[in-house]
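Handout, section 4.2: multi-component inputs.
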Amino acid sequence: MGSVRINDVEVDVDPKSNIIQAAQQAGVEIPYYCWHHDLSVVASCRMCLVEVGEKKPDGTVSMFPKLVPACQTPAKPGTVVITDSDKVKKSREQTLEYLLLNHPLDCSICDQAGECYLQDYTYKFGRAHSRLNEPKVQRLDKYHIGDQIALFTDRCVMCTRCVRFTREISGTSELHVVNRGSVEEIDVFPGHECNNKLAGNVVDLCPVGALCSKDFLYKKRVWWLKSANSVCTGCSTGCSIEVDQNEDKIFRLRPRENPQAQGSFMCDEGRFGWKYVNSEDRLLAPRKGKLGTATPSPATEEKPKSDLDFSDPWPNILNDVNQAIAEAARHDAHKFVAIFSPFMTCEEAYLLASHLKSINSHIRLVLGPVPVVGADDCYPKGPKGESPAPDKVKFTIRAEKCPNRLGVSAILKHFQGEVIEWSTVQSELAAKHLQSALFVGGYPQPVLSNADVQNLSELRLLIVQDILRSKLTDNANFVLASASFAEREGTVVNHAGLAQRCHAAVRPPAEARADGRILMELAGRRGLFHADSLLQEIGAVIPAFAALKEATMGELGVKALS
Amino acid sequence: MISWDYLWPLFVAMGIVLAVVPIAGLYMTFVERKLAALIQNRVGPNRVGPAGLLQAVADGIKIFLKEQVVPNHVFKSIYFLAPTIGLICAMLSIAVVPFGPTEVGEKEGFRAIIAPGIDIGLLYLLAVSGLSAYGIILGGWASNNKYSLYGAIRSCAQFISYEIPLGLSLLGVIAAAGTLNIESIVASQGPGLMHWNVWWQPLAALMFFTAALAETNRLPFDLPECEQELVGGFHTEYSGIKFVLFFLAEYTHVVTVSFLTVLLFFGGWHFPGLTDSVDSTWGGYAVRWCVLLAKVALVIGLIIQLRWTLPRFRFDQLMGVAWKGLIPLGMLNLVGLAVVLTLDLSKWWLAVYSLIIVLLVGIANVASTRRTSTSNSRSNIATDLRSAPYEGAS
Amino acid sequence: MSEENSKAKKHVTWAEPPQMTLMETLYIPAIAAGIGTTVKRMFGKNETRQYPEVEPEIPPNYRGVHRLNRDDQGRVKCVACFLCQTVCPAKCITIEATATDKTDPNWADRDKYPATFEIDELRCIYCGMCEQACPVDAIELTSIYDLTGLSREEMIFDKEKLLEVFDETTQSGKDPVRTKRGTLGPASEILVDLPDESSSSDHPSS
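Output:
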């Protein structure tokens, strides 16, 4: 660590960091466009120019005669930085004036307005008026440079973050700069659209409104979005994300920087994989009794409640579910299986497992099907699309498409000493050895084969807790409408044993309820579902989760399992 | 026995009264609105019919077609009875009031009065008009509502208080005419302008008008129904036709009072220049009728004008006007009357006497309200009141 | 406490009502004067305006029913920036934005426009902040003051209705387009003749 002086503040910084990071540490803002801590440094935007000097061993300070880019200058010990001199201010003002020369100023229709660095910096550091009298250089917009990406060329400030991302992180190198001077612009090679699995990140990286997500384009102005910190449930990487919602409607997911989990990015699979939350097939209310029809169709859904019907269907149904479980367990507990979805949070798995074991310790707890698609997908790709060497991996899309296999397994292991795999139950089902089952779903896509569904449907008792309507829910004796990842609180453990907290961003639709709340009431526990206190209980009860007992979860998560 | 010849004029007179009074009541609302509008620089009702003349008819139709709302909490039988009683009492008092020129003692043929030649006219009138408080009190009480009851109780107190100056003010007129018969009293005032009772009994005329106004519950004496304090007073719970009955009773009172004021103090159908007896010619008869109705219209106009001129009294002021103003003045007037009658002096002495009384009372009033060290004493009271809580705290 | 008393005495002046004169205590002259006043009033000029026969003159800055302006090609001028919806204190504006059809030559120069634009005229408080917020002078309040309707639904004005209001008011000549702020957006008309050339630099866009 070395001591660096930023304006009047003396800070100890890592000598590897640059002056922007040092200034951040000192609480001084240095504006920048092109620099990003996960990308290489190009120092092309000239926004971060500051006065830099060096403290000599004899105590005198010698300043460099020119302004230097803060992003490119390492904060070595003894560096003196001045960010608020007239020279620096003038420089920023001029830089911004140049950036805005050909900018169309169409903030009123730009999706970035509200979270745009060009806007913010112009307010903070720029001049109020333009002095340009000549017509602006028009650069044509490219509304399709990728399936998910539109490029508004005229808004671009040529920071080349997106270009460097496709070269350094995804390794696919679709984007590049064409032309020079005032007609310089970002483009793709003909026929090679920017469609890699990480392409959505260039929209986040773009500091202005040049790259826009087609999925979110014109859907909502960003100042109306409220964010909740959450975790992507698309795969076992468990990317930290922010869920942006307005009026209980999700509009987009954005990666949340978390060096412990995935870094600064997320894949498109996760980014756009939340649509099932608003699906028309969502279960809206709990139900007792089979639907009976073979083909699920919306017309057979139970009658919508009248506006004046405030009755709560849950207490009766949960009561009946409990009685049915007790009845089945009394009959033959060995033939009762509870199938735990790897989409459950740790708290939910714990609540359900402890409740079932307290009814009858012979009830078997099974880890449900774990969806696996292909193999882990590692980035950056090589020139021919080959995967990188293991030590060069910067981002991985895991094959295991569920967020919490490790967490649920650890809990099941605690309650019955072993984790019964789904395949075991599958064969028992096929052999008609089982009589009743409780199936917890929550899968965005159906995971059960038709044969499995058929076998489960033929059981004497089938209780399904799920979010989407399927053949399985139609044939269940009890259906408990539960919540998606964006609608519930809880902790999930990713592939590396990192426990992270999901926060509810929106409310579950209609009468559906967050799983935690359902299980709290099913277990007859008093009070409201509270993830923190449950997690402490888990930490105290289950040795594998001991790390969770004392630690506070925070937003970056805690290493729980190894 | 009672012959048909004797009865038909009676029925005709009753028919005229029963037909004209409600219509007059309806049209008085129109006149009142129109006058109010003029006073307030507005136009007033002008949409229904020419110059808005059918407004009263439209109002009447509307109010008859209104829903009958009967609150659950009222005492049903009395609630329905009260407005009827109010209107009946108001109508009864008209029976002895001549609504056109009549000859005294004439009992054959049509007379513009329901009960011609009745010798206890004024006594009957005082008795019956006192009854009309009944309707209001019953209505307020049957409504089973605090505001209505307050209105009724106020009305009760007001009636009792103002009956006294009303009676006192009439004594001079009765003594001079030597009869309670209203027709005779009118006859005694003819034919010249200076024969009118008002000239030698100005104080009594004023007292009568004031007290009678109070009896009608009109501004500035409408405390039983003042909106700002009591929502609607005794008729808060009444709507539609039941409300109209109360309303009609009030306007009937106004009509009665106007007639009485004119008949008792302003020479009735007499006017300078009209010297013939009442029905010597049809033309003379008609002119006298017109004179009477014109005088009555003027008084009604005055009553409406007063509504927009004077603010409503506070309740203590209302009581003060009766008990501390009108009643003592009436007693003093009575003393003067007794002296004049006993010593057989000219009745013009009474006019002088009235003026002297008024002046003296005014001077006494000024003297009594003159304060010597008022500001001092008042600020003492104020600071004492203000410091009271501090005292308690320390 | 005595201190407070003396303080109060020092700082509080008590106003006394003026003494009544003899004429005033007699009341009768005062009442007569009052009647005189009301009688005089009866013959004064009356102030009633016979609406609807005589319509009031509406000042040009009156804030009545909204309209959505059209640009010179007849398209809706609004670019769906949502600023009016954001600034609206009554939350009566609901907009749904959509991208323009790029294959349509009429819309080639526009990126975004309102698919729906609804104003709940019953909820609106007619503060005019939408008009102030609009960067392209697309929403304006007209001088229509006598808006009536028989149901709540018909008082929710959609885009077509608001454009109709524009057509009606501009055709009748009652409400010329009154806000012209210049080239702040793609739909705003070009600011050609500025009164002072140097003032054009006041706009960051020019």
